[in-house]
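Reopening this ticket.

The earlier resolution said the output was attached, but the attachment link was broken on my side. Pasting everything inline this time so it's all in one place.
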Amino acid sequence: RLATKKIAEKIADGLKKMKIGELIATEGSRIIKDKIAGTFLNMMVNDTLIQSIIKPIGAEAEKYLEEHGEEKIEPVVAEELNQIEQKKVEELLEDCGTNIDQIGTALQKGYEEIIQRKGKEFIDSIHISEIVKTKIQEMDVLEVEELLLSIMKKELNAVVNLGAVIGFVIGCVNLLF
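Inline output:
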């Protein structure tokens, strides 16, 4: 896969920039000095001898990385990517130190901010009145009439009921006076 190859290249380039050979020489020297400190070998082994042994090892490591780094790194990267692809989003988030609730909260805040900033502009771009007008024009005359009558019936029932309540209240008030 292209992504695997690119990632392997980046890792190999990063390792080359770290100057692995020098790192091996420096750390190797320090470790050898620490290991032989206080022993009989300490009198026979000096820095020059240690450097003459460890520097070629570092140089060979750099050369090996230059020649074979990507091909050795690529299968490891492929396996890691394969494991990542097998995981659920929630598991990946947990691996990154977050959880689904935090993402949900962040998304909710982002949504609210977008609505506050762009909501009116979005609503204005919809042109609701034109959509309603078009839909009504597409409807059959009988459908429009039926729709209007059903709405009027509900509203007229509300007016009649309200009138009955008002009449009742006025009647009660008249009885008291």
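Reporter confirms the inline version is readable. The chain has eight helices and no strands. The radius of gyration is 40 Å.
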